[in-house]
Amino acid sequence: SQSEADAQAKGAAADYPASLKVVADHARSCCFLIADGVNPSNEGRGYVLRRIIRRAVRHGNKLGATGSFFHKMLQPLIDVMGAAYPELEANKARIEAQLLKEEEQFAKTLEQGLKLLEGELANLKGSVIAGETVFKLYDTYGFPTDLTADIARERDLTIDEAGFEVEMAAQRQRARDAGKFAVDYNSIVKVEGETQFDGYDATQGQGQIIALYKDGEQVDEVVEGDEALIVLNQTPFYAESGGQVGDTGILKNETGIFEVQDTKKSGGAFVHQGIVTVGSLKASQSVEAAVKADLRAATARNHSATHLLHAALRQVLGAHVQQKGSLVASELLRFDFANDQPVTFAQLQEIERIVNREVIANTAVSTELLDIDAAKEKGAMMLFGEKYGDEVRVLSMGSVIEEQNFSIELCGGIHVKRTGDIGLFKITSEGGVAAGVRRIEAVTGVKAVEAAQKADRDIHAINDLLKAQKDQTVEKVESLASTASSLQKQIEQLNQKLASFQAAELLSQVQTVAGRATLITTVQNTDAKSLRSLHDGVKSKLENAVIVIAAVDGDKVSLIASVAKAFTAAVKAGDIIKHLGQELGGKGGGKPDLAQGGAPLNDKLAPVMASLTAWLEQKQQG
Predict the structure, then answer these.
(1) I need a surface site. Which of 45, 133, 368, 500 has the fewest CB within 10 A?
(2) Mind listing the pLDDT tens digit for each residue in 579-594?
């Protein structure tokens, strides 16, 4: 009716300014987030960003926008806010690329999700979309529930919100169950006050046991064989934090020895996790604490190298590089950072050169406690999303350029005294770990020397095989690769000729089945690629026919069948291959005129191929 049409028009007009506000507000939020180093992802703040982008795109579509439009909102934002927030202009290309990539991905997601929804709606009984379907759209395709609800309203349907919440609750429980084996020290350790950390300049010290825990309960004593948690009033053991692993070592006194296997934090308390190896330990006793100094030194080398790596990455790749995670252990360092593209081999080498230049310079590493404003003024790198107190520890290292150190970051970890203590820095791998996040792994000190020596051993072994001098490796390999490529082409040509000869020989095996020329045969020592060439050779000489060939290659059987198009109404190539696959314990399929498959070689091959003539006669006559 006219009144209903007027009401709908009025509703659309009311939505119009609301959608405009959503697009404008979300454009501002998304651009700021990406400029600050956040990338769209499926977890944490990255997932929040992804949801904001998708909501904005949906409202843009409601306004009639087609194609990719949201990334174009950046320039108007720069025009209005660029002077106050110059990072927008500085990161313009990256922000636009991220928004465009996400828009295009959402378009695919939308298409896939709509197909699923259309399929569900086609079989829907009643007017309520099941909560399970709503959850699947949300969880698998990233469909916001309000988007599914909008589509439902357009079709006079509703969604089962209660059912959706049940599915969400089940997912949360699965997530909790997946992490149930992790020790929650905060729920176990209840200690007033804080542990005094004395480990920045020492690996040995003394402390008093202020709490003991066994099997999740506080106890007064632990004895030999007990796995326990020990809290000291002061300790040289570093507790896992900021990506650096916790220290290991020994706590001991006249009554017992405790092997510390890890050190964690619980509030302000440092928790020493391990096992009593000798005697017993009691609450209030004093102990001597000794950190494994060699592991501590190796960890410190890797931690300091991580800071130099971060600065080098920003220098080579750009200021958009920001830390997304790290692991600093005695064996290696792992550094995750924001970057859309893989780091090239040339860039990795340049990064290595820059870090090792700072190592060779052997400059002093300095730390100072500053208030947060002074740290910012000094130019210290701060991680997006991290919470900092009023006073922070600022670590400076590397060459001084324009009155500023090569690397300045906030860090509470253990570091070397001078950059030269790192010894040598060597990147061992680079790869992607998530959308817009790359990971570099590297080693330092003796481990770096071992990595370099392994590379030398590999080159030496290759040269021995090539009978080449060290400076001839690449030249010899290129020559061998060229020769191998040439020989491969010759082999393919010879195989084609051989297939042609075999095809001519196979023509003598052609028989008539149900009034049609038919070839059923098995060939030996023929791989799948050669089988296709053989088949094509036969078909070129036998056009209107049914052709079935089994090729044995080692312990595998490759199958191919073709049926002239004039005969496909009576028998199909795909049916032939499916029949053979079922009989031989394999699988396959294809079009009515051509199909392929495979199966393991077994004693059934000969009788199955022999019985195929009767099967075809029955099939074609039926």
Answers:
(1) 368
(2) 999 999 988 888 899 9
Q: CA nearest 350: which of 322, 315, 318?
A: 315
Residue 10 CA: distances (Å) to CA of 7, 63, 152, 562 = 5, 15, 20, 63
Model confidence at 132: pLDDT above 90: no
Inter-residue contact 280 to 222 (CB < 8 Å) = yes
d(CA 338, CA 324): 7
CA distance 302 to 194: 28
User: Could you tell me the pLDDT band of residue 6, with boundaries at 50, 70 and 90?
Assistant: very low
Nearest to 328 by CA among 338, 319, 316, 336: 336
Tokens describing residue 266: 């619980």
Is residue 238 predicted with pLDDT exceeding 90? Answer: yes
In order, the DSSP letters of 60-101 are HHHTT--SS-GGGGHHHHHHHHTTT-THHHHTHHHHHHHHHH
Measured CA to CA, the distance from residue 153 to residue 129 in angstroms comes to 11
The yes-or-no verdict on residue 1 having pLDDT over 50 is no
Query: What is the reported pLDDT for 385?
Result: 54
Instruction: Give the helix/strand (H/E) hosting 333.
Output: strand 333-338
Cβ atoms 423, 298 nearer than 8 A: no
pLDDT in tens, 170-214: 877 776 655 444 466 667 788 878 899 999 999 999 999 999 999
Paired tokens of 157: 């349907």
What span, in angstroms and rounded, lies between the C-alpha atoms of 446 and 274? 28
**CA quadruple 387, 393, 397, 401: dihedral positive or negative?**
positive
pLDDT at 5 over 70: no
In one letter, which amino acid is 594? L
Residue 590: strand pairing partners: 595
Q: Can you give the pLDDT at residue 607?
A: 93
Average pLDDT over residues 219-233: 94
Chain centroid offset of residue 360 CA: 34
DSSP 8-class letter at 381:
B
- Rounded to the nearest 5 degrees, what angle is found at the Cα of 493, between the Cα atoms of 491 and 496? 110
- Tell me how far CA of residue 59 lies from CA of 110, 310, 506, in angstroms: 14, 39, 66
402: amino acid identity, one letter: E
Task: Give strand pairing partners of 522.
Answer: 550
